[in-house]
Each structure stands twice: as structure tokens, then as C-alpha cells.
């Protein structure tokens, strides 16, 4: 664990159009109603999409770490296709936990198993 007092995370998947962003809180409240949530899940489960080739061969994770003294490091994690890498991480976590590696308690996979989990699952670090 880093002991960092806070972590900022971002995603390119958050809607940026102002009308949609304004509606998200209302949508969240509507989906908290069990009947509405069940109907939405049912409708979403019926959506059919065409298979398409993946948009890219690799996925990238980016981190900037800044310490209290101003020291700053930046790095990247290069992994395979996003969904494939997610499955690889899940398989690696399962294997490690089955072998008794890790700490008891509620942790993120990296906190429980260490940053090496990223490379165990097939990723590679690129440090600036």
C-alpha cells in the first residue's frame, strides 16, 4: 500500500455531453427502484450487437505519482486487449489466492497481491 492520502482516477467512458451529464443523477435514482432496475437489465440483456474486430492490439494504463516533497514519477502499463487482460488478471488472482498467496481481508487485487500482479497477468511496465 502506498499510504497516499487520496487517489484521483479518470475514465474516458464518462459521458461528456452536458444534457446527459445532467440526467445521470436522475437515472441513478430511477435505477435504485428494483422494478425499474430489473426492467432495464432485462432490456439491456436483449440487445443484439454485431461482432467486430477489436479496436486496438494493446490497452494502456497511466499513472502519475507525486510525493509530498514534490518528487513526481510517471509510468504506463501496457497490456493486451482490455477485456482479455481483465480476464487474465482475474485468472491470475484466482490462481494466486488458491495457492495461499495474498493477505486476508478486503483489498484491491494489487493491494492484496502486489504490483507484480500486473506483470503476472501479462502486462508490462513502461516507466518515464
Radius of gyration: 19 Å
Average pLDDT, rounded to a whole number, is 86
Unreliable stretches, pLDDT < 50, 5 or more residues? none
The 3D shape can be described as extended
Total number of beta strands? 3
Largest sheet, strands/sense/barrel = 3 strands, antiparallel
Query: Roughly what percent helix?
Result: 40-55%
What pattern of helices and strands is seen along the backbone?
Answer: HHEEHHHE
Distance between the termini: 22 Å
In percent, how much strand structure appears in the residues?
15-25%
Biggest sheet strand line-up: 1-2-3
Q: If helices are DSSP runs of H or I spanning 4 or more residues, what is the number of helices?
A: 5
Work out the oligomeric state of the chains in this entry: single chain
Task: Describe the protein in words.
This protein is an alpha+beta fold. It has a domain of 69 residues. The protein is 41% helix and 16% strand. A three-stranded antiparallel β-sheet has the order 1-2-3, with no helix packed on it. Strand 1 and strand 2 form a beta hairpin.
Amino acid at each position: 500500500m502506498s499510504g497516499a492520502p487520496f487517489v484521483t482516477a479518470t475514465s474516458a467512458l464518462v459521458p461528456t455531453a452536458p444534457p446527459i451529464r445532467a440526467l445521470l443523477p436522475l437515472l441513478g435514482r430511477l435505477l435504485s427502484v428494483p422494478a425499474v432496475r430489473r426492467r432495464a437489465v432485462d432490456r439491456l440483456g436483449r440487445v443484439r450487437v454485431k461482432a467486430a474486430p477489436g479496436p486496438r492490439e494493446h490497452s494502456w494504463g497511466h499513472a502519475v505519482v507525486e510525493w509530498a516533497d514534490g518528487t513526481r514519477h510517471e509510468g504506463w502499463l501496457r497490456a493486451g486487449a482490455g477485456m482479455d487482460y481483465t480476464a487474465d488478471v482475474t485468472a491470475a488472482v484466482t490462481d494466486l489466492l488458491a495457492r495461499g498467496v495474498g493477505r486476508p481481508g478486503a483489498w484491491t487485487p494489487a493491494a492484496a497481491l502486489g504490483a507484480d500482479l500486473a506483470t503476472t497477468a501479462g502486462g508490462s511496465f513502461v516507466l518515464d
